[in-house]
Design a protein that fits this description.
Oligomer: single chain
Strand order of the largest sheet: 1-2-3-4
Number of strands: 4
Shape: globular
Number of helices: 5
Distance between the termini: 11 Å
Low-confidence stretches: 1-7
Amino acid sequence: MPTSNGRERGASHELVSAARALRVEQTPEERLLWDALRERKLEGCKFRRQHPLGSHILDFVCVERRLAVELDGAHHAKEDQHRYDRERTEHLEQYGYRVIRFSNSAVLADLDSVLDLIRCELSSEPLTS
């Protein structure tokens, strides 16, 4: 559960610092999606960006709906990255999160469809922990 400083389930101080740095160094795709999610613009849900959780940093997360949204660049097409992403998703599911992934190109090409899929997930029931 969240602690008083906003960290959840054991994120280290180093990970929190890394997350802060990633917020400053957003990719164009992250910036575009963040603009659509921030300030409760999507279904009135609060999203956080570059949010530490355990040993991971989530690109975007709605804690109240237990939904993580990950953006995948070209390096995610490699087999070893696929394996890591599957393991990461399984680990996040142990925290009770659902994880959805989008390619950077999908965000650039059709942001409306990406947002529609996120809306659909937000209306689904979260996993039980």
